[in-house]
Write a structure and sequence with these properties.
- By secondary structure, this protein is of the alpha+beta class.
- The chain has four domains: 92 residues, conserved putative lor/sdh protein from methanococcus maripaludis s2 fold (Beta Barrel); 79 residues, Beta Barrel (Elongation Factor Tu (Ef-tu), domain 3), CATH 2.40.30; 55 residues, Beta Barrel (OB fold (Dihydrolipoamide Acetyltransferase, E2P)); 122 residues.
- Helices cover 33% and strands 32% of the residues.
- The protein has four helices and 22 strands.
- The strands form four sheets. It has a six-stranded mixed beta sheet with strand order 1-22-18-17-21-2, with no helix packed on it.
- The relative contact order is 0.17.
Length: 448
């Protein structure tokens, strides 16, 4: 009889994954039937995939760190950067300022006396000479007053002169009296001496002798008194004449001033120069003291320069500066410092030393005003980097020139062209001096 086909054995699996003995099978070897434990697998596909992902991520992070050299980096086009080379050279601390060219001297024309403009001899902008009439004014009240004052002064002068004439005549009379008395005394002395001899010889009577003697003595006493009076009169006359001469001089000066007042109705040029402004139209009234124009002295040029008050303690008379006009450089010197500060600025006057350029009134000039002596220093050109870093660090190109890394530095003095490098850089270092605003916090720049 053929064998009966058998069905495949079935197994049961427990919840913990242990395989149980097939149902319907029997144990071999003649022993009792019992369950067999199945060994758990360690390297499942899921676990292997997880480990591989972690390894790949770690490698990627390590590669990124190694490729950036341990810092953040930023890619930038090299032609967008300004790269400057650190060099050793002469450092001159100066400040760039803008001044205005002015005449070396300006004379203002004021109406000394008020009046109405009657005549205008020149026009604004004309070249005038010293003493040349410019404008004539008229003032009827002033004319009448001046004529009255002139008449009074003339009368007083005449009175003083008459008094002086009277003093001179009195002195002349006294001198004539002295001369007459001296003559009489001489004549009587001779007569007295003759009569005394005659009296001694008893030729003349005693009465006649005494008469001549008394007349001689009287004349002598009278001469002495007249001399004393003349001396006293001379002293008084000298004092009076001194006072009169002073009074006469003052009156003549007043008369001259009165006449000058009339002359002031004609405004004249006090110097040679150019009449840069004139405010006087025919028929217009100009009060006394009002300004009617100004004259510029064309013999020289000065420059009025406003400077920030930050430098007020470092600017003094005698400091030098330079200006370039039409391609040529000219030297200037501070001649006057105005200490008053207005709107955060003070002003100085500078004059050209040596050759003077051809500049016009009101022309603006860009001046380099020196603030100290020239010294040897390590120089870094100025740039926009300073706004971001404050001069505390810069990007310095590596030897290959394809990267720039941060480097701490310290800067000293500065001028509009250079910074003085105190430490952190060496001659020949190439530095990115353009602005750093777009680089963020990158430690390294990669140049493309």
């Amino acid at each position: 009889m053929a064998d009966k086909p058998t069905s495949p054995p079935t197994t049961s699996t427990s919840k913990n994954g242990i395989l149980s003995q097939p149902i319907g099978s029997q144990s071999t070897g003649g022993g009792e039937g019992m369950d067999r434990r199945v060994k758990k697998k360690t390297w499942t596909p899921k676990r292997i995939g997880l480990i591989v992902g972690v390894v790949l991520l770690t490698c990627l992070i390590v590669w990124a760190l190694l490729s950036q050299g341990g810092g953040r980096r930023y890619n930038v086009e090299a032609d967008r950067l300004t790269i400057s080379t650190v060099e050793r050279g002469t450092f001159q601390e100066y400040v760039s300022v803008t001044g205005t060219a002015l005449p070396i001297r300006t004379i203002y024309l004021d109406a000394v006396v008020g009046g109405q403009v009657e005549e205008k001899y020149v026009e604004e902008g004309a070249i005038v000479r010293e003493g040349q009439p410019l404008v004539r004014l008229s003032n009827d009240n002033l004319t009448l007053q001046t004529l009255g004052n002139e008449a009074q002064l003339t009368e007083q002068i005449n009175n003083i002169r008459n008094t002086r004439l009277a003093l001179d005549q009195n002195e002349l009379n006294l001198r004539q009296q002295l001369t007459q008395l001296e003559y009489d005394r001489t004549r009587l002395r001779r007569e007295y001496e003759r009569n005394r001899e005659l009296f001694d010889r008893r030729v003349i009577a005693e009465q006649e002798f005494e008469q001549v003697r008394d007349e001689y003595e009287y004349t002598q006493q009278r001469l002495e008194l007249t001399r004393q009076g003349y001396r006293q009169d001379s002293l008084a006359r000298s004092l009076q004449l001194t006072q009169m001469n002073g009074q006469l001089a003052r009156l003549q000066q007043n008369l001259s001033l009165v006449q000058t007042t009339m002359d002031n109705l004609v405004v004249r040029s006090p110097i040679d120069g150019q009449l840069s402004s004139l405010d006087a139209e025919i028929g217009a009234s100009r009060p006394a003291g009002s300004r009617i124009g100004q004259i510029d002295d064309l013999d020289g040029v000065k420059v009025r320069v406003p400077i920030d008050e930050h430098y007020i303690a470092r600017v003094a008379q005698g400091q030098q500066g330079q200006v370039t006009v039409s391609g040529a450089t000219y030297a200037l010197e501070v001649t006057k410092v105005f200490p008053e500060v207005l709107n955060g600025r003070f002003e100085v006057d500078m004059e050209f030393v040596g050759e003077v350029p051809d500049v016009r009134r009101g022309q603006s000039l860009r001046i380099r005003l020196e603030l100290g002596d020239s010294t040897e220093a390590l120089l870094l050109p100025r740039g926009g980097f300073f706004t971001t870093t404050g001069g505390n660090w810069v990007y310095v190109l590596t030897d290959g020139g394809d990267e720039a890394v941060q480097r701490p530095i310290r800067l000293g003095r500065q001028n509009p062209q250079f910074f003085e490098v105190a430490e952190g850089l060496q001659p020949g270092d190439r530095v990115v001096t353009s602005g750093y605003d777009t680089f963020g916090d990158a430690d390294r720049l990669v140049l493309k």
